[in-house]
Amino acid sequence: MGNESTTRRSEIAELYTRFGPMVFGRCRYLLKNEEAARDATQEVFVKVMRSLDGFRQESSPATWMVKIATNHCLNLIASDKARWRERFRQYVSHQEEGGFLQGVDPVRARMVHQLLDKLDAETQAVAIHYYVDEMTQEEIGELLDRSLPTVRKRLEKFRRVAERELSHDQR
Q1: I want to staple 101 with a disulfide (CB 3.0 to 4.6 A). Which of 69, 109, 118, 153 is the partner?
Q2: Which CATH number do you get for residue 141?
Q3: What is the DSSP string of 64-99?
Q4: What domain range includes position 51?
């Protein structure tokens, strides 16, 4: 058993030495964050270690590990977006308890909620970051990993929907 364990560790160490930089590069590219990429690289190699016996060598080890890294990072990105949306919903729903609508007339607060409900999650995020957090368009683009034209389009969409909804309310 000890010899098998030593062989396994040696095999993983060799894979890490040989392919670690490549896996890290993929993680950094997808996550756009050096620290998150380091953590993800470690997690990818834990997955590699656990599934090494199942590797059928139908592809190269590099291709196999890049696939694991890509799927892992995409799952992280998806779960981060889901967590952000949930935090946003909690933030908005607790406006009476100190959220961004605290002290706002309840009718106006309800109107803001109705307006946000008419928008997709990304447009909501851009609008909140711009109008509530007072971030620049450049900061929003960096935070959400979107181009400046995309941020501008989302703000324009928000303005159009807001104007339409507000004109309906004044009739």
Answers
A1: 109
A2: 1.10.10.10
A3: HHHHHHHHHHHHHHHHHHHHHHHHHHHHHHTGGGTS
A4: 2-82
CB 122 within 8 A of CB 108: no
Identity (one letter) of the amino acid at 90?
Q
- pTM for the structure as a whole: 0.48
**147, HSE (Cβ side, Cα atoms, 13 Å):** 3
The model's pLDDT over 141-168, given as tens digits with 9 standing for 90+, comes to 888 889 999 999 999 998 888 888 776 6
Q: How many domains does the chain have?
A: 2
Q: How far apart are CA 146 and CA 118, in angstroms?
A: 21
Per-residue pLDDT tens over the stretch 24-78: 999 998 888 899 999 999 999 999 888 887 776 777 888 889 889 998 998 888 7
Instruction: Say which residue the tokens 């756009």 belong to.
Output: 32
CA quadruple 151, 157, 161, 163: dihedral positive or negative?
positive
Rounded CA-CA distance 153/148 in Å is 9
